[in-house]
């Protein structure tokens, strides 16, 4: 089973645009959206959900008011100011402020607070015009996005095996935190989609370092390369110094926005030369995946 994971470091570089184009270009594959905090691949792939399950990612405190004697110990020990009190409603847990550390449950002398499984989000299997997709949505303010990414990848591998597919193409999360680590660990190849801006370069370097740490092969795509040729040259030099192939340089093209508004990938909409550049880039990526 091969896995291609498309990441960016910085958000908004065009990672999902490239992923959606690959979804259209590659025939036998399974898609995943591992950007569980802010999934948006569905905007272009337009999935029809046929399987949906809760994601139980951790445990959260719950208070049994009938046991509470209002001693105030839980509020004293909570380092997150997540336990509030008023005369009418007594002591209460603010789930948005709570870090689920469980200290209050140990400290309560009456056993009024217990830790219970908490539903942190939902994961889905869907049909799309480009094949099946495993994706997920983390609840608002919920934790454990790394665990949810791992779950999405596990379910995708299981489904790909059932369907006889040997390639998973994944829209990865931005940044370099826990969800990205969960998305790239053990993957076959990472494609970093960057842009020639200061923050784009900075975050590309950080995610490239992360991939090197986990010994994952990397390729780079420079999106909107023509908006700043000086910075584009810096990216080329950076990649050349580290032996990272630059497999695609996509020009800035306002028609890409029109494709997005029409909910089409850049290879299914007239986006000038962008479609052809992405097709050629896929050929380079495929060579590495098959190597
Ligand atoms: S520590 Fe237990 S008994 Fe004391 S206020 Fe909190 S919930 Fe109530
Ligand atoms: S679990 Fe931790 S953070 Fe949440 S209310 Fe209890 S002590 Fe505070």
Topology:
Elements: E1 2-7, H1 15-25, E2 30-33, H2 42-45, E3 48-63, H3 73-77, E4 83-86, E5 90-93, H4 103-107, E6 113-128, E7 131-138, H5 145-163, E8 167-171, H6 178-184, E9 189-194, H7 198-213, E10 218-223, H8 229-242, E11 246-250, H9 255-261, H10 274-290
Parallel strand pairs: 1-8, 1-9, 2-7, 2-8, 9-10, 10-11
Antiparallel strand pairs: 3-6, 4-5, 6-7
Helix pairs in contact: 1-10, 5-6
Bound molecules: iron/sulfur cluster (SF4) (2 copies).
One iron/sulfur cluster is lined by residues 61, 77-78, 80, 82-83, 93, 98-104.
Write up this protein:
The protein has 291 residues and is of the alpha/beta class. The protein has 10 helices and 11 strands. The protein has helices spanning 15-25, 42-45, 73-77, 103-107, 145-163, 178-184, 198-213, 229-242, 255-261, 274-290; strands spanning 2-7, 30-33, 48-63, 83-86, 90-93, 113-128, 131-138, 167-171, 189-194, 218-223, 246-250. The strands form 2 sheets. Strands 3-6-7-2-8-1-9-10-11 form a 9-stranded mixed β-sheet, sandwiched between helices. Strands 4-5 form a two-stranded antiparallel sheet. Helix 1 (15-25) crosses helix 10 and helix 5 (145-163) packs parallel to helix 6 (178-184). The longest helix is centred in the middle third of the chain and has 19 residues, at 145-163. Bound molecules: iron/sulfur cluster (2 copies). Residues 63, 68-74, 91, 108, 110, 112-113 line the site of one iron/sulfur cluster.
């Amino acid at each position: 089973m091969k896995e291609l994971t498309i990441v960016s470091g910085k958000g908004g570089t065009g990672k999902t645009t490239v992923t959606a184009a690959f979804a259209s270009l590659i025939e036998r594959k399974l898609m995943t959206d591992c950007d569980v905090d802010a999934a948006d691949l569905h905007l272009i792939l337009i999935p029809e959900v046929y399987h949906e399950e809760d994601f139980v990612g951790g445990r959260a405190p719950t208070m049994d008011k009938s046991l509470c004697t209002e001693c105030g110990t839980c509020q004293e020990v909570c380092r997150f100011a997540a336990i509030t009190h008023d005369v009418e409603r007594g002591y209460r847990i603010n789930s948005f402020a709570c870090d689920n550390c469980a200290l209050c449950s140990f400290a309560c002398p009456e056993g009024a607070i217990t830790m219970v499984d908490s539903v942190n989000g939902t994961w889905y299997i869907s049909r799309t015009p480009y094949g099946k997709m495993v994706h997920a949505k983390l609840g608002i303010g919920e934790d454990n996005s790394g665990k949810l990414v791992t779950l999405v990848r596990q379910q995708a591998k299981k489904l790909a095996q059932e369907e006889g597919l040997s390639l998973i193409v994944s829209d990865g999360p931005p940044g370099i935190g826990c969800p990205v680590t969960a998305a790239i660990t053990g993957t076959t190849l990472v494609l970093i989609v960057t842009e020639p801006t200061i923050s784009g370069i900075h975050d590309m370097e950080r995610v490239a370092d992360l991939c090197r740490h986990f010994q994952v092969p990397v390729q780079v795509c420079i999106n909107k390369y023509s908006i700043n040729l000086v910075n584009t040259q810096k990216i080329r030099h950076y990649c050349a110094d580290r032996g990272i192939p630059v497999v695609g340089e996509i020009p800035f093209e306002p028609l890409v926005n029109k494709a997005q508004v029409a909910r089409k990938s850049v290879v299914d909409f007239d986006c000038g030369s962008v479609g052809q550049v992405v097709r050629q880039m896929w050929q380079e990526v495929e060579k590495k995946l098959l190597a």
